[in-house]
Amino acid sequence: IIAFSSMGLLVSWLIDRQQQGLRRLENTQSELIESLQTVKDQRQQLQVSEERYRDLFENAGEAILVCSIDGQITSANSSCERLTGHSRDKLVGTSIYTFFSEDDTDSIKGIFTEGIQGRTIGESEELCLVKKDGTEVFITLTVSALPHAGETTSLQVVALDVTEERHLRKNMEYYITQVTRAQEDERLRISRELHDDTAQILAGLSRDIASLSARFEDRLLPPVTEELSKLRNTADSALEGVRRFSQDLRPSILDDLGLIPALEWLATNLDKQPGITTNISVSREPRRLPPEKELIIFRVAQETLSNVRRHSKATRVDITVDINDEATTLIIKDDGRGFEMPQRASDLVPSGKLGIVGMRERARLVGATLIVQSETGHGTTVTLRVPE
Q1: Where are the strands (E) in 232-346, listed by range?
Q2: Do the beta carbons of residue 348 and residue 342 sit within 8 Å?
Q3: For residues 121 and 109, is the Cβ–Cβ distance under 8 A?
Q4: What DSSP state is assigned to residue 119?
Q5: Contact criterion met (CB below 8 Å) for 330 and 300
Q6: Which of 27, 47, 287, 381 has the most CB atoms around its CB within 10 Å?
Q7: Distance, CA of 20 to CA of 18 (rounded, Å)
Q8: Measured between alpha carbons, how far is 75 from 96 in angstroms, rounded to an integer?
Q9: Domain coordinates of the chain in residue numbers?
Q10: pLDDT tens-digit profile of 154-209?
Q11: Which helix (H) or strand (E) holds 302?
């Protein structure tokens, strides 16, 4: 009986273990089915994503291509064909550098290096791409990394055709140049007319009043003598104002003696303002620059110092002119109240910084760069670099 009882317990235990194993097997099977379904769903989602990406890739208006890190094109959309004139079969397997000059190739390699390091590069500088038929188009590149298994093995490159924009900008620069030249010619004409005609008339009027007062001094009543004196003072004040206005329009010292004497004249005039000390230093013996460059530097200095006088509440202004074989650099620094510079150039006009916009436009006419640095309570520094 004991043997049969023990045997029954053993059978019961074995049956129970078997049932537990079956349940675990069923659970594992269920989990496996769920995992397989998850993998299937993920594959479907990946396929949908790939199809969407492929649609976006193929139908994008911009030229998009994928390159290996050494610049070999592995994929290109239809817009690349329109941009380059080459078929996709020709593009794939070709180095992207073959479509650019050596200088642009160095620039692209630098962009790719940053892309490989994981930094998405915004629009590059303008690059010149040579199409199949030999025509040149200007593009900008946006490069981003395409990581795989934690490593960057390829790069996505978006090329934007800016040829038309470039032509429009060149046309705009041309017309700005013409307008600026017309303005300067008109300034010169008015300045000469004021100096040769109006100023001479006022000077003659002042002399005539003085002569009249002296000639009839004994016969004029004191009130008349006093009025003649006031009239002469008014004529002298008008004469001084006309001469000052004529000089502001186009100082003859710029044409006759050159840039440095003209800047010294501006500094001297500002130094006459109460509470302002102005210093000017020149790095080396000055030389005459082309007239258009001297004029741009002078106008930027004139506008800057005018802003200092009217707005900055500065007590000290330092003007530095650095002259070397590569460029002439003008730096004007004041200790005034400063202002908050807009972060974007497009915000200069809405924020009322029209003077800065005008100076930048003038600088561009001669290929110069203008940098304005300012902070509330810490003054302003204007740097103009004019290349040789």
Answers
A1: 277-282, 316-323, 327-334
A2: yes
A3: no
A4: P
A5: yes
A6: 381
A7: 5
A8: 11
A9: 62-161, 163-250, 257-388
A10: 888 888 898 888 888 788 777 777 877 788 788 878 888 888 888 899 889 999 98
A11: helix 291-307
pLDDT in tens, 238-283: 988 888 888 777 778 888 888 999 999 999 989 888 899 999 999 8
Task: Please name which of 347, 274, 263 lies closest in space to residue 303, comparing C-alpha atoms.
Answer: 263
Kindly give the interhelix angle for 291-307 and 259-271, rounded to the nearest 10 degrees.
10
**Which stretch of DSSP H or E encloses residue 31?**
helix 2-59
* Spatial CA neighbour of 330 closest among 350, 358, 309, 303: 303
Instruction: Give the homologous superfamily in CATH for domain 62-161.
Output: PAS domain (3.30.450.20)
Which tokens hold the place of 283?
């790095």
- Residue whose tokens read 């038929």: 133
The one-letter amino acid at 76: A
CATH superfamily of 257-388: Histidine kinase-like ATPase, C-terminal domain (3.30.565.10)
CA pair distance 23, 275, nearest whole angstrom: 95
Q: HEC profile for 189-242?
A: HHHHHHHHHHHHHHHHHHHHHHHHHHHCCCCCCHHHHHHHHHHHHHHHHHHHHH
Residue 277 and residue 315 in contact, taking contact as beta carbons nearer than 8 Å:
yes
